[in-house]
Design goal:
Helix content: 40-55%
Number of strands: 7
InterPro entries: P-loop_NTPase
GO molecular function, one term: transferase activity
Enzyme class: transferase
Radius of gyration: 20 Å
CATH architecture of the largest domain: 3-Layer(aba) Sandwich
Pfam families: Sulfotransfer_3
CATH topology of the largest domain: Rossmann fold
Largest sheet: 5 strands, parallel
Order of helices and strands: EEEHEHHHHEHEHHHHEHHHH
Number of helices: 14
Structural class: alpha/beta
Protein name: Sulfotransferase family protein
Shape: globular
Strand content: 5-15%
Number of domains: 2
Length: about 290
């Protein structure tokens, strides 16, 4: 049965066309999120504990979203609605001065300025299908990056590596398992014996395959794909595309970074064995995306 249309109001403002920024770990989501989050009238959350709990519940057990679509949509909407509430205690622009208990629960003076909302929490990509159900008018911006550079960055990131610990790698619960990039019984059986570099590559492969399916399911009016390597030196063009797609007044200056881009860093950061392991599972996707 078709679900009734939802109406979500946050800080007295109706939420229309929320924007979600997606990508594999270390794919450049944070750079796009920074630019969108600094656009006038745009509030973009990232990493709210309630949102992460809901996102990971769906991301690591995608069958939940299929079996309980209505309940999952409500779970996600409630989590984002709470994270988008701007009060003196949650607003990043409020000075942090003491407020009364009554004022702490009321919208702050910046709340009325937020007319658009979105999120760029880590691993949001793995809940994209559920997000489409929860927010039928949502827009998605996904970022693609060379899987070899992604694997190199993941290998240096303790937070990324933590997912491979036995207590967190619930590879026996779901098949296929996009979060860990496992798609067959053979891959699941072999998983405990794989190198960490291979596991990183599997997560990237699973992410780009999800991204490809999204491109097939959503039209250009709902989904925008950016290549990480194309952002640098084309900040003006990227900002224009983001403005056209989201309606947010994104500044090209917010896309400029003085930090090292990390493009091609895998050449010095991956050992020969690690590079071989990455290519062993991701070679097809690397070639398809032009990373040869």
């Amino acid at each position: 049965m078709k679900q009734p249309p939802y109406i979500l109001v946050v800080n007295g403002t109706k939420v229309d066309r929320p924007v979600f920024v997606l990508g594999a770990p270390h794919s450049g989501v944070d750079l796009i999120a920074r630019a969108l989050g600094r656009a006038p009238g745009f509030y973009l959350g990232s990493g709210d504990p309630g949102v992460l709990n809901a996102v990971y519940a769906v991301a690591r057990r995608p069958s939940i979203a299929e079996e309980r679509a209505s309940g999952t949509a409500t779970l996600l909407r409630d989590a984002f609605a709470e994270s988008w509430q701007l009060t003196p205690l949650t607003c990043p622009l409020c000075p942090g001065t003491p407020v009364s208990a009554r004022e702490a629960g009321e919208p702050c003076r910046h709340a009325r300025e937020a007319t658009r909302f979105g999120d760029a929490s880590p691993d949001l990509l793995y809940s994209a299908t559920a997000l489409r159900t929860a927010f039928e008018d949502a827009l998605f911006v996904q970022v693609i990056r060379d899987g070899r550079d992604v694997a190199a960055a993941m290998l240096a990131d303790e937070r990324s590596l933590a997912w491979f610990r036995p207590g967190l790698a619930n590879v026996g619960d779901e098949l296929p398992n996009p979060f860990f990039g496992i798609e067959s019984e053979h891959e699941r059986n072999e998983y405990p014996r794989l190198s960490t570099a291979t596991k990183c590559a599997l997560r990237w492969r699973g992410a780009v395959r999800l991204s490809a399916r999204l491109r097939g399911d959503l039209g250009a009016d709902r989904l925008m794909t950016l290549r990480y390597e194309d952002l640098f030196g084309n900040e003006v063009g990227t900002a224009e595309h983001l403005r056209e797609f989201t309606g947010a007044r994104v500044s090209a200056m917010e896309l400029v970074t003085t930090e090292a881009t990390g493009i091609g860093a895998w050449r010095s950061r991956l050992t020969a064995d690690q590079h071989r392991d990455v290519r062993s599972v991701a070679e097809t996707e690397l070639a398809r995306l032009g990373y040869t």
